[in-house]
Design brief:
Blueprint (H helix, E strand, L loop, with lengths): L2 H34 L5 H21 L3 H9 L3 H10 L5 H7 L2 H9 L3 H8 L4 H7 L5 H10 L2 H11 L6 H4 L6 E2 L5 H10 L9 E5 L5 E6 H6 L6 H4 L13 H11 L3 E5 L5 E6 H19 L12 H28 L1 H6 L2 H29 L8 H31 L2 H31 L8 H24 L2
Parallel strand pairs: 1-2
Antiparallel strand pairs: 2-3, 4-5
């Protein structure tokens, strides 16, 4: 899909969201008007108008893809969201639940009774059930497992046995397997007998009679080669494969690196037990990216934008409390130099510049380091080399931009010494920002924590307090 096509699709989705919101607003307006009317036919008129609007809204939803409906649900306040959710046909509930964010899914599941949850879950594959199972009531899970056949039940248990960040938790069990000692013509006849191929099938998996993976047969090779050839002659015998206990994000990086659509998952004996597909990898990369952004800001989890005040408070309060403490420390640093500020008022006007530039520089450094760590491009053993590089960049930036602001300070206040202090403070604070920008994520990683967790909050605290102390300290020593 080209950039223009993507923009058109997004514009179309925004238009449909606007139409849904308009219908919801129209329904509220009409209901409000009919409530004000008196007469014996009021209830009948209200019911007819209500049904007409809901039927039109339901018709709009039926024309949308499940992912588009999920997008609309996420963009609506809770009351409107539940109104739209009630209009979705029951046979689409499962697909939509899998598409919405975790926080929105929680609100939708809370609005469903056990019967509706069971009906939605019965339409799902084993890997999809495993994704949804942790959020379903225990009695629903128990009843659902009893309705599955032995193979499906074993697959669900297998998927649930892995952590959510492991390959085994994301693998799909729907795949096509063939033998290596048959002709391509036999394979083609076999495929024609299937009702449909599993989604994202770009290759067939070649296994022996014990289920051990021998190779893969890309669909394009199947189509362009002589039908009389044997599978063994055409297949790729060294495919990229994964083990169920591998890190899922490492697998996602491999998908990006090798342009994979699907890949086999094998156990320690080489037996084929599932496959990974590109859709799961794209979702994983998106979720990881969103998680990093949230962690950098000190948010513990994804938040429904229309969540209750209490839920939002619980998600945000911890790092705000830490930020309050660090802000208080910064204020105490300023308090140490009250006398200096009283003697030279220009210090009060200039010191936020030193702290602000230091904070921006530190956030640039920490963002680059966290991204590189996420891509496995660096590790804790690279700390010293990265530190030297970032310190060199900070030194050059400090001298250049510190010099610029030093000249500005001279022009504003007519003091060369103030300009020199400004330049020195800017340079030293940028060096401090670079140092902490490398050390904070590396230290968090070394102690087993997410290197992005609260990194932005911590670097800002250091550069604020450090910047104030450096600038006011230099000013006290050399200007007063």
């Amino acid at each position: 899909m080209t950039e223009v096509e993507i923009k058109k699709a997004q514009d179309s989705l925004q238009s449909r969201l606007a139409q849904v919101i308009e219908l919801l607003n129209r329904q509220r307006v009409v209901e409000g008007l009919t409530h004000r009317q008196d007469g014996q036919h009021q209830d009948r008129v209200e019911t007819l108008v209500h049904r007409q609007n809901l039927v039109e809204l339901q018709r709009k939803l039926e024309d949308l893809h499940s992912a588009d409906v999920a997008y609309i649900l996420e963009a609506l306040p809770l009351d409107d969201r539940l109104t739209v959710w009630q209009l979705v046909k029951a046979d689409r509930d499962g697909d939509i639940l899998l598409e919405v964010s975790d926080s929105v899914r929680e609100t939708l599941i809370a609005d469903m009774d056990d019967h509706e949850l069971l009906a939605a879950a019965k339409e799902m594959d084993a890997d999809e059930l495993a994704d949804l199972a942790p959020e379903l009531p225990r009695d629903v899970i128990h009843e659902l497992m009893e309705t599955l056949d032995a193979q499906q039940r074993e697959r669900v248990r297998s998927a649930l046995s892995y952590n959510e960040d492991q390959v085994g938790a994301l693998m799909d069990f729907e795949m096509v397997t063939i033998r290596e000692d048959v002709s391509l013509e036999v394979v083609l006849r076999y495929l024609r007998r299937l009702k449909e191929l599993p989604g994202h099938t770009d290759k067939l998996f070649v296994v022996d009679y014990d289920g051990v993976l021998k190779g893969v047969l890309p669909i394009k090779r199947l189509l362009v080669n002589d039908p009389e050839k044997q599978v063994a002659e055409v297949m790729a015998s060294d495919p990229v494969s994964f083990h169920p206990d591998e890190d899922a994000y490492d697998a996602a990086q491999a998908f990006e690196r090798y342009d994979l659509i699907s890949a086999p998952v094998v156990d320690k004996n080489g037996k084929l037990i599932g496959r990974l597909t590109i859709d799961e990898m794209v979702d994983l990369i998106r979720e990881e990216s969103e998680s990093e952004v949230l962690n950098m800001a000190g948010l513990r989890e994804e938040e429904d934008i229309f969540a209750s005040v209490w839920k939002s408070l619980r998600n945000r309060w911890a790092w705000l409390a830490i930020n309050l403490i660090t802000a208080f420390l910064a204020s105490r640093v300023i308090g140490l130099f009250e006398g200096s500020i009283e003697k030279l008022v220009a210090l009060a006007a200039l010191m936020p510049i030193v702290a602000g530039i230091g904070g921006n520089s530190g956030n640039q450094t920490i963002t680059m380091i966290v991204r590189a760590m996420a891509l496995d491009q660096v590790n804790t053993g690279s700390t010293s080399r990265l530190m030297r590089k970032e310190l060199a960049v900070a030194l050059i930036n400090g001298v250049v931009w510190g010099g610029v602001i030093g000249v500005v300070a001279y022009l504003l206040y007519g003091s060369w010494s103030l300009g020199v202090v400004m330049t020195a403070a800017m340079t030293l604070n940028l060096l401090l920002a670079a140092l902490m920008g490398v050390l904070i994520p590396m230290t968090l990683s070394r102690i087993g924590r997410d290197p992005a967790m609260g990194a932005s909050v911590m670097i800002t605290a250091v550069t604020d307090s450090g910047g104030f102390f450096i600038f006011l300290g230099l000013a006290t020593l050399f200007l007063l």
